[in-house]
Amino acid sequence: MNLRRYKPSDYQELCTWWEKHNHPIMSSEILPEGIVVEQDSKAICIGFIYLVNNAEVAQLAWTTSNPEISLRKRYDAVNMLLDGSISYIASLGIKHIMCFTDKNSIAKLLNRRGMRLGNDHILCIGSIN
Asked: In the chain, how many domains are there?
């Protein structure tokens, strides 16, 4: 498996994954820089990194995996994605990371990397007309 940058051409596949996971479809306009884990040119998971301009913090968001790949391979890919994301954020000199997730598996993986677990959250997102 290897890491690469998210490309706009990945968006359609990402939408398919979101649909299969019963996740709301996010507009491509709100997606920041992303990282893709792939194997043999097939994407396994994608995650995004929001950089906060006025604070020394980055936010990990929208981590999503290909539902047609085995759970074990997705687990390994998400681990690789988190490690790669954290390394990238550190290379920018950013020392703090936050992540909002309703996925216990991702929360546990982040907790193993030293992040504290918070409470459940409600995510509201929309566009302003």
From this structure: 1
Instruction: Give the chain's end-to-end CA distance (angstroms, integer).
Output: 41
Residues 6 or more apart whose CB falls under 8 angstroms from that of 105 comprise 75, 78
What is the CATH classification number for the domain harbouring 75? 3.40.630.30
- The verdict on residue 104 lying in a domain is yes
pTM: 0.86
Beta carbons of 25 and 32 less than 8 angstroms apart: no
Query: Which of these, 8, 16, 17, 9, lies nearest to 77 by C-alpha position?
Result: 17
Q: What is the pLDDT along the chain (129 residues), one digit of tens a residue?
A: 999 999 999 999 999 999 999 988 999 999 999 999 999 999 999 999 999 877 788 889 999 999 999 999 999 999 999 999 999 988 998 888 888 777 777 888 888 888 777 766 555 454 445
DSSP character for 8? Answer: G
User: What's phi and psi for 43, nearest 5 deg?
Assistant: -70, 140
Which residue range is the domain that position 35 belongs to? 2-112
In-domain check, residue 121: no
